[in-house]
Amino acid sequence: MSDFHFLYPWRLLLLIPAIALWWLPSAGRSAWSRIMDKSLANALIVGRQRKLSRALPWLVMLGVIALAGPSWQRQLPAALTPERNVMVILQQDTAMLASDLPPSRHQRMQTKIMSLMERMPGTRFGLVVYNAGAWLTTPLTVDTAFYSLFLHAQTPALLPSGEGSGLQHAVSLAMHNMPAAPRSIILVTDTLSAEDARWLGEQNTPLQIWVPGTAQGGALPEKYAASGTNTRLNVSRFEQMRDDGIPVTLVTTDDEDLPVVQSHIQQSVTAQNNARSDLHWRNDGWMLTIPILALLLIWRRQLFCWVLVAPLLLWQPSGHAAWLDAWISPDVQGQRAFSKGDYARAAQHFNDPLRQGIAWYRAGNYPAATAAFRQAEQTPEALLWTGNSYAQQKQWQQALNSYDRALSLRPDWKLAQGNRAKIAAIIMQLRQKERENKSAQGEEEDYKPDEIKHDLKPHQGAEQKDIQPIAGGNPQVNQWYENLAVSPSGLLESLYRTQPGEDQ
């Protein structure tokens, strides 16, 4: 709630007359109370305190606050709501084999991570492991079965031994393999060096720490019992991390820690969205209608209350003539229409050109969508949608130019890269067909992409479903997916042995 503010703070001046309404009860006192003994008047006069008078100030004040537009978070258009991306960084030191969280810290965290993923459907999860080095084990995915396959294949014994800590490389690797905000990192660690703790405190990273283990520590398997590994948690160090502003959650034997970790993710996503300047603040004044209605239902003279309060609730500056526009903003009306699939009506309501363009795009009016997108702030999202609109109109070169501009602002954006690749492939096909036709006619001419004049057949047009991100990332990672006949553990071990962790 640190972002709480009022969208129309000047309207709070109406609280002054609302406060003055507190003196109405004394003004309406019966004349008998002025000529009778006070105790006798109190005993004989019925209804001396009018419930309506007592309720009216509260009703008016709530109405004024609602009109002022209380807000504490940005409003994401439905078509732009980004996927939540969570990268788990899993420490793989020997202490993770301790049995104080049975059967072991490592196995318990495997179960915990999968439970968290199941609690957050639609959220993309990735996995980075580290000890002395750091490796991307699983790129972002919503496929729980695939994620579980490589998560449960992972063991601390697979990672190469070495000196030092790969935590800093792991954080950099996680950030590099996630798209732009909102994103979140969960660091699962039972050991933090003083250097790593200091480094984490200096970073401006959307990170939380999930700590498996106990202060007493636990026994290690017989194979590692003689290694001299200290399995006791350094509680004071993790407390210091928490005091430095990094959320720290201790793993529990049940699932009580899962909602805490999930709430930290949501808080991080909200904070990142609120930091965006291209999104409007959401007006949550409508929530105050609930206590207003509750107050009206409690007192008897509801009709009279409505007569007194309704003008204040419906009052708006003179520029808004319609009753609906007076109380519900056009963007909110547009969002409701968008959610119902009435995209043309939504576009007519939206004031925000980006939202308006998306609505026109969904309605199939691509020229109107293009015009709206060009009026919006030229963010990567706006440029991507502009490119998609041009593609739907088969204006291939303009589409490429828009994608290139989006990529210049966000170079690692897989979605823009994929869409550009689709359009580039169409252009190359058209060029090849044109050359073949000219060759058959004995004419050879080199056409440039922006000189293409021929359209594709109707069924060959660039549909939105075809404008999708392509598979990206590390070629070795993509190779694993195509070769699942090999055991997941074998694939991971091959990765760790052939690819140095520091070079990710």
What does this structure look like?
The structure is a single chain. The protein is an alpha/beta fold and 504 residues long. It contains 23 helices and eight strands. The protein has helices spanning 15-20, 24-27, 32-35, 38-44, 51-67, 105-119, 144-153, 167-176, 194-202, 235-243, 257-274, 289-298, 302-314, 323-327, 330-339, 343-349, 353-363, 366-375, 380-392, 396-409, 414-440, 475-481, 488-498, and strands at residues 5-6, 70-71, 85-91, 124-130, 134-141, 183-188, 207-211, 248-250. The radius of gyration is 31 Å and the shape is flat.
Number of domains: 3
Largest sheet: 6 strands, mixed
Q: Give the beta-strand count.
A: 8
Radius of gyration (Å): 31 Å
Which structural class do you get from the secondary structure elements?
A: alpha/beta
> Proportion of β residues?
5-15%
Instruction: Give the overall form.
Output: flat
In DSSP terms, counting alpha (H) and pi (I) runs of 4 or more, how many helices? 23
Which secondary structure elements does this structure contain, and how are they paired or packed?
Elements: E1 5-6, H1 15-20, H2 24-27, H3 32-35, H4 38-44, H5 51-67, E2 70-71, E3 85-91, H6 105-119, E4 124-130, E5 134-141, H7 144-153, H8 167-176, E6 183-188, H9 194-202, E7 207-211, H10 235-243, E8 248-250, H11 257-274, H12 289-298, H13 302-314, H14 323-327, H15 330-339, H16 343-349, H17 353-363, H18 366-375, H19 380-392, H20 396-409, H21 414-440, H22 475-481, H23 488-498
Parallel strand pairs: 3-4, 3-6, 6-7, 7-8
Antiparallel strand pairs: 1-2, 4-5
Helix pairs in contact: 5-12, 5-13, 6-7, 6-11, 15-16, 16-17, 17-18, 18-19, 19-20, 20-21
